[in-house]
Design the sequence.
């Protein structure tokens, strides 16, 4: 899990080409303004010899990987801040880059797969097969431009036909056991920006996670801002540690003073040697005593009402046994002990509820 001080933001954006200085500037501002530490630049269209130079203008001193050896036209470029993350590339194809990511701050690890689906549905079959082969139970997020939608509700405008191959994405996600991470912002992440009635909007870009991700990152979410300079919305994934439950203030209850371990506990702490001025020594002994009282309270009186109910039930069983066999010496002795325990716990329960009123 991320430490209480750790937060992580990462994402992707299909900018349809990074050769344009305006899009380079947009990418740079996107990384800076959203504190992104890991980014997928989709359909970047930068030739391999020019990638280093292009990234120097966007995220200098960052590290990167790409799939240009599988797709020379420049499809997926992944870059990250090495001061925050370590990234190890595990698998690369023309339509995905699969990586293992670990935080340099707390060692937290997860898997991320950046995707850019082919335009032709027949070519995307390889993508679906590759994703199914990558299926695993580790903490996994899949994100990018799939060039496909899950159902007709993810499209506005254009034809409403639904040929069989349109089910491929949904079937793939079912096989991989992943689903959309909860998100806000734009539902339709791409549009052709044409005038009515030719305007079409679809949800081509998405962030998918498996069950392990949801269990590990209960507070994570995705955000799809407006597209800006691109015709695709970017995506930002926020990993934020869940808020800590409020700590209960220490309360001293009278029933602790009646416990046989009370005085020995006080004596043990008060005899400890603490160096410092008298006020510091007194404060430190009281602090240590508080810790010991918490342990004693948890051991002997936690879930006090449940303990009272359990002991009362034991007492009733013993009373029934003695009613049938009043001379049973074992039951007599046990009844005496349980009755004493029942009185002690009942008084502690009463003191507890009076103390919190």
Sequence:
């Amino acid at each position: 899990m991320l430490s209480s001080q750790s937060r992580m933001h990462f994402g992707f954006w299909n900018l349809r080409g990074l050769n344009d200085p305006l899009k380079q500037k947009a990418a740079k501002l996107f990384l800076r303004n959203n504190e992104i530490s890991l980014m997928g630049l989709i359909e970047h269209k930068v030739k391999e010899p020019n990638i280093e130079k292009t990234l120097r203008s966007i995220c200098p001193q960052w590290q990167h990987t790409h799939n240009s050896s599988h797709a020379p036209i420049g499809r997926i470029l992944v870059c990250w801040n090495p001061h925050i993350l370590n990234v190890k590339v595990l698998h690369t194809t023309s339509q995905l880059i699969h990586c293992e990511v670990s935080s340099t701050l707390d060692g937290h690890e997860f898997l991320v797969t950046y995707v850019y689906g082919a335009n032709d549905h027949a070519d995307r079959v390889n993508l679906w097969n590759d994703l199914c082969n990558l299926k695993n139970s580790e903490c996994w997020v899949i994100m990018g431009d799939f060039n496909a939608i899950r159902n007709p509700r993810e499209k506005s405008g254009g034809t409403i036909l639904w040929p069989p191959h349109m089910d491929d994405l949904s079937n793939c996600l079912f096989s991989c056991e992943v689903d959309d991470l909860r998100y806000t912002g734009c539902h339709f992440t791409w549009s052709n920006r044409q005038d009515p009635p030719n305007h079409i909007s679809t949800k081509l870009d998405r962030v998918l996670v498996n069950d392990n991700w949801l269990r590990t990152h209960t507070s994570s979410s995705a955000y799809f801002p407006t597209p800006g300079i691109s015709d695709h919305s970017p995506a930002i994934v926020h990993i934020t540690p869940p808020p800590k439950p409020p700590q209960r203030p220490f309360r001293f209850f009278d029933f602790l003073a009646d416990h046989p371990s009370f005085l020995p506990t006080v004596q043990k702490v008060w005899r400890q040697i603490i160096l410092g001025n008298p006020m510091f020594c007194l404060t430190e002994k009281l602090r240590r005593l508080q810790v010991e009282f918490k342990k004693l309270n948890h051991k002997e009186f936690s879930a006090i009402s449940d303990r009272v109910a359990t002991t009362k039930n034991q007492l009733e069983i013993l009373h029934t046994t003695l009613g049938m066999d009043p001379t049973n010496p074992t039951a007599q002795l046990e009844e005496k002990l349980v009755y004493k325990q029942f009185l002690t716990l009942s008084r502690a329960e009463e003191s507890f509820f009076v103390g919190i009123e």
Notes: Residues 254-355 form one domain. The two ends are 37 Å apart (CA to CA).
